[in-house]
Amino acid sequence: LDFKLWQACTGSTVQMPPVNSKVYYFPQGHAEHTLIDVDFGVLPRVPALILCRVSSVKLLAHPETDEVYAKMKLVRIGNDDSGYDDLEVLEKNDSAERLPSFAKILTQSDSNNGGGFSVPRYCGETIFPPLDYSADKPLQTLVMKDVHGQIWKFKHVLRGAPKRHLFTTGWSVFVNRKKLIAGDSIVFMKKENGDLYIGTRRYKRGGIGGTASLSRWNSIAGN
Amino acid sequence: LDFKLWQACTGSTVQMPPVNSKVYYFPQGHAEHTLIDVDFGVLPRVPALILCRVSSVKLLAHPETDEVYAKMKLVRIGNDDSGYDDLEVLEKNDSAERLPSFAKILTQSDSNNGGGFSVPRYCGETIFPPLDYSADKPLQTLVMKDVHGQIWKFKHVLRGAPKRHLFTTGWSVFVNRKKLIAGDSIVFMKKENGDLYIGTRRYKRGGIGGTASLSRWNSIAGN
DNA sequence: TTGTCGGCCGATCGCCGACAA
DNA sequence: TTGTCGGCGATCGGCCGACAA
């Protein structure tokens, strides 16, 4: 999966460490992000932080939900990291190279069955190719790919009074196929060559954050 | 899964050996019913028939296709089957106890989208509760369960000239949900207490019978 | 600027009797 | 007796501008 595409789907809050960079692995944080209640009390004493080297990063997308995620391989390194500095740090991401993209949280009307998609003006003017504004009802068909490379087509119109950007034909099939509901987000991206991409972000349907199952790590294994 | 229900779905051509009965296991037959090409030539010499005792039988239905099948556990017995005759033969099936049932192969019209189901007169009169024939257009709602216990409702009417039994409302959702096509069969069953059940039999969509991949068993391992 | 609503038009679904195999 | 067909009415999807937040 293309890195910029992946990054546009995660949003700017997510930062991936480059390959060969040094990171701290934080067992408690990892445990709390799983739904399994890990009892550190019964395990051998686990350090709070473990210095590691990122040996590989795989950018992936769930085949059904389109949710993007990463698989990272971490190799523990001791204080003796001699020779480590020779390794080239790959994928040094320059945030200035980020693709132009636009995200919108779906409203009830956007996700209603039998409805269209209300395109925010800024998105309609900066992400998509310009419409023929001289026409009475400017209209074009937008073709975009999702994270799996599947093609989706949307009729993009500018109509109503006051004038507004809308997706009509093609939108509802996309919503149904991706099982999107109000609160989920949609992301549009434009590559340098003008190719358009569409991604989705699910509304957090609970599970992450660890509010329900507080790890017993703090109290027993120390901090 | 209830035995009589299971039996009605398989049809009368299928006979299940009772638990604790003696059977011959026939390796070549088993191999030909799998789609894997088993090469008996490379295996240690396999007897043509292996005398076994049926130690357990599980009647099952595929969660998606509704196809019914059985899992049998066979235990090899030698010529010395002393003590075997003491075991009680369970599930001795008396074919006289078979449930009243009716099967029909779906026509194009039955499986057409937007159509109903033409109920053969015999089925409409013997399996389902009697309609109120004094009415102009006799009508009732039939409730039946499939092999998974899921409930399906069908509007059963008697109309047209000449009068005929038909399923209208409810039929198309059933066909779509079960992905039935012309050539597939439908089975109606009535339990002693009057409860109705509905089962399906898929048209053989190839694969069984071993026409494509003839086993090499005959020629090499002997008969 | 844009979320929601009601109107409305066309497509599809599905119920019907006619008819013939 | 019953498979298939064309008709047609009801329902639904989905496109529209109005309006207000």
From TrEMBL, chains A, B:
Spell out the protein name for this chain: Auxin response factor
Q: Where is the TF-B3 domain?
A: 102-204
Localization: Nucleus
Functional summary from the UniProt entry: Auxin response factors (ARFs) are transcriptional factors that bind specifically to the DNA sequence 5'-TGTCTC-3' found in the auxin-responsive promoter elements (AuxREs). Could act as transcriptional activator or repressor. Formation of heterodimers with Aux/IAA proteins may alter their ability to modulate early auxin response genes expression.
Note the residue range shown relative to the complete protein.
Answer: 8 to 230 of 631
Q: What is its main location?
A: nucleus
User: Per the record, GO CC terms?
Assistant: nucleus
Report the source organism.
Eucommia ulmoides
| Protein family (similarity comment) | Belongs to the ARF family.
Single biological process term from Gene Ontology? pattern specification process
The entry describes its oligomerization and partners as:
Homodimers and heterodimers.
**DNA-binding found in the keyword field:** yes
* Gene Ontology MF annotations: DNA binding
Keyword annotations for this protein, in alphabetical order, are: Auxin signaling pathway, DNA-binding, Nucleus, Transcription, Transcription regulation
